[in-house]
Every structure is written in C-alpha cells, then in structure tokens.
Design goal:
binds magnesium ion; 2 domains; 14 strands; 300 residues; binds adenosine-5'-diphosphate; Rossmann fold; Alpha-Beta Plaits; six-stranded mixed sheet
Amino acid sequence: MDGVAVKAEKLTKFYGRTRGVVDLDLEVRRGEVFGYLGPNGAGKTTTIRLLLDLIRPTRGRAEVLGLDSRRDGVAIRGRIGYLPGELALYDRMTGGELLRYLANLRGGADWGYVESLAERLQCDLSARIKSLSKGNKQKIGLIQAFIHHPELLVLDEPTSGLDPLMQHEFHRLVREMTEEGTTFFISSHNLPEVERISDRVGIVREGTLVAVDDVDSLKRKALRRLEIHFASPVPREAFAGIAGVRDLAVDGVTLRCTVAGSVDALIKAAARFEVLNVVSPEVSLEEIFIDYYHGEGRAP
Ligand SMILES: Nc1ncnc2c1ncn2[C@@H]1O[C@H](COP(=O)(O)OP(=O)(O)O)[C@@H](O)[C@H]1O
Ligand SMILES: [Mg+2]
C-alpha cells in the first residue's frame, strides 16, 4: 500500500465550453486531512465528481486508493464514504430508515455506531427527512458517509448548514477518525474552517489549482484583518512601519489593518495601550488569492 490516497494527473473537465477544472495535478497522502479550498464555482464539486467517476473527464486521469477512477469506479465507491454537495435524500423515510437501508446496501453496519454518531451530532433519526432543516439533513448525509468505516472520506462542503456547535463536533469526529488512519478530502469555501481541520490545503480558483501548502505555511502567508479597540485614542505613529501591516487606519480608539503573516509585532505594539477588544473579521478568499498571485512566498 503506497502513501497516496488520491492522485490526479492533468485532470480536466469542460462542460461544453464551460470550464470545470483544467490540468489538475494533485496528490492526497494517506492519513491526512486535505482541505480543498475555493470560492463558489471554482471547481471543487467538479473535481470530486471526477474522482468518484460520477462524471467523465475531458482529459487526464485520476487514481483513488491506488485504483483507476474510471476502470475501478465500483470498487472505489465500496471503499470510500462520500457526502455530495447537493444532497438528495429519500424524503418520505425517516433518517433512521434511510440509514438502515443504506447500511444494508453496504452489507450491514454496526447500528450502535450509527446511533452514537447521531447522538453526537444531535440528529433525530425518527423524524421524516422532508421535515428536517438543511443542517439536520446534512447530519444524515454525514452519518451515511461514515457508516461503513471507510478508509477515505470525500466530503463536499460538509459543514454547510451546520450550526457552530455541530461544526465543532464534526471537526472532533474528523480528528478521531484520522487517529485511526482515515484519510479525508474535504472541500470548503471557508478558510478558517480549512485552517482548523486540515493538514494540507489545496487552493482552487477558476478551475485551476493555484497552490498546495501545509496549513502552517498557509497561516504564515495568509492575510488577516484585525480590529483593535482601545480604551482611549491612540497615535497612528505608534503603529507605523510594523512588518506585515497594511492598510493601517487609526480612527481615535479604533485601529483597523490587514496583517500578512505573524500578528506578533502588531499585538506587542498595541499592548502598550489599554486594549478593550481585538476582533479578527474573516478575510475573503479573494483577498487571500490576491496575495497568492502577487505575493507568492512574500516574507511576512
Ligand atoms: N453540470 C454542469 N453543467 C455545466 N456547467 C457546470 C456543471 N457543473 C458545474 N459547472 C460549472 O463548472 C464550474 C465549476 O463548478 P463547481 O465544480 O460546481 O464549483 P464549486 O463546487 O467549487 O462551487 C462553474 O463555472 C460551474 O458553473
Ligand atoms: Mg460545489
């Protein structure tokens, strides 16, 4: 068993003239959590559908668990768990009925495990699926992906619709499963989430993989927006010329800026005054991509 769980070589998909993904070269290592990050329309779902042989590539190829994605699609699907981006479930069943049905298709499953997952995700298995909220449907989708303890999980935007507490529980599940050797390929358009759960991140934009990086290295390069609220007005000069600080605006008791890389120097400068609050609003992916385009490797 080699160390590669997913491999794509020049994988390309055009929908007619619409670009899905182009010349994707990608390797996911066994046992890692690979975050596949990109804004809407970037090509995440297309990539996942290609890997699972749900759509055919225009050119290029992929391997999943050492098997050819097209030739061995059936064998691959038996060994992986998959959460589709647009989840379609049998509406008239209850969650429990659907999971039992899917478990039987998989040759039976450990029902105690299903119930423990449902409990952790606070998922009511007795409710009809059509009566469930988006988030609660998503939980059923997650449980069905985990049901047979697959060695690889391919999850397309798994936390969309989940409230923060359940997102947190999901992250814990991922961590526990990776300790048992499970590999994850998780797509997301949410950078903080990807930072939190992934070992490595691939950034996809307009159908092209623009970067693959360790999370630690991404964090060092990523832009952060910071807002610091002080007890009394602070002088702008106290914050001029700090490494990595851009777009500095000081307005009386409020400082706003963008920081590339470490926030250490800025925080130390701020600590000379009385700080009431520090807020870090989310930076859009677009801003991060701009940094990747214009500042690849820029020292923080
Ligand atoms: N079935 C389809 N037919 C035509 N175009 C599609 C289809 N699926 C996706 N696309 C297009 O391919 C591009 C990538 O889409 P997608 O893979 O769904 O992105 P993401 O999952 O990152 O939001 C988009 O421009 C989208 O409009
Ligand atoms: Mg998608």
